[in-house]
Known about the structure:
Blueprint: H1 2-9, E1 14-18, H2 38-48, E2 53-58, H3 63-69, E3 77-80, E4 85-86, H4 95-112, E5 119-122, E6 126-130, H5 132-137, H6 139-150, E7 158-162, E8 165-169, H7 175-186, E9 190-195, H8 201-206, E10 212-216, E11 225-227, H9 230-248
Parallel strand pairs: 1-2, 1-9, 2-3, 9-10, 10-11
Antiparallel strand pairs: 3-4, 5-6, 6-8, 7-8
Helix pairs in contact: 1-9, 2-9
InterPro entries: HAD-like_sf, HAD-SF_hydro_IIB, HAD_sf, Trehalose_PPase
GO molecular function: metal ion binding; trehalose-phosphatase activity
Keywords: Hydrolase, Magnesium, Metal-binding
Amino acid sequence: MSASLHDLATADSLLVVSDFDGTIAGFSTDAYDVPVNPEAVIALQELAALPNTHVAVLSGRHLEGLHKVCHLQPPVMFSGSHGAESDVDGVELTEEMAAKLSDIEDRLAPLIAAQPLAFVEAKPFQRVLHVAKLATSDDAAAKQLLARAVALDHAGMSMIVGKNIVEFSVANVNKGTWIAATIERLQPSRALFLGDDTTDEDGFLALRPQDLGVKVGEGETAATMRIADTAAVGKLFSELLEQRRLSLD
């Protein structure tokens, strides 16, 4: 890990992109009361203040919701809905997209009618079935509900299965397309991306050979390195900050 961090720290220009939930913050049954890692937040804010260093938070949360829980300040960039919403640019919702979202919401409604611990979140470009609360009391029922959602007809929409969620999207973007576009726009010498979920795999695949993808936690991954948890994320960012400061002196 140290050698790769050294390569990043000494790069002429650097892009640091991090997922939020499961990476900078832990999980909670209350989506707006998650334990945020202060070490990670402080290090990212200070990295963003360094010359030729760009920092972004790239999340599946919708942009407004992301700002409510992640209080990093400019010049840190924010992108929500897996890259469909951004402080820099974003996707425009068409009438056709809105109709598809309404249709899948109607299809999901009967599935959760008898499950008060499950709910459908309406994001600008997605509808997301959440079963985290249900899973804490009846994991089998949660898995069955997810399976029924996956089996729904969702023609014309993409579907992502993550940790206790199934997400249906009308936006033809993902974390990989956002990272690729941001690398093209900023032209960093090297880039770093950290994420923990299956929704982050597109991001790892979009990285170039000179970049570094870091998987947080368990599971199959296209990332080239792995760390244990959110505490390790904070330590990684702090080490990167220290090394980059030294390289820029």
